[in-house]
Design brief:
It comes from Agromyces bauzanensis. The protein is α+β, with helices and mostly antiparallel strands. The protein is built from three helices and five strands. 35% of the residues lie in helices and 38% in strands.
Amino acid sequence: MPVWFFWHDGRALVFSRPDAVKVEHVRRGSPVLVHLESGRFGNDVVVLTGTAQISSRSAAEVITEFRDAYESKYAEAITDYGMSLDAISEMFNTPIVFTPERLMAW
């Protein structure tokens, strides 16, 4: 499932709805895989494995810290979504912090 994410200090920050299945899986300690589209036509595959935790900070707190960079990265998508970044962070208010441990690429 496509998700918006932001890299910071070697970790990916992902914002999710609190009732999403992925949030429940992270809370239970399930292993995490992140597949990234790569290459000019998206045909290069990058898979990261690692761990994830639910942040103790709210999405609004995290967004405040990285707002300019996040809005710059997702400006077009935010416009297409038809909601302000504040409204999006209220809906997707559960930050997941993914720490990669292994990388596979081909």
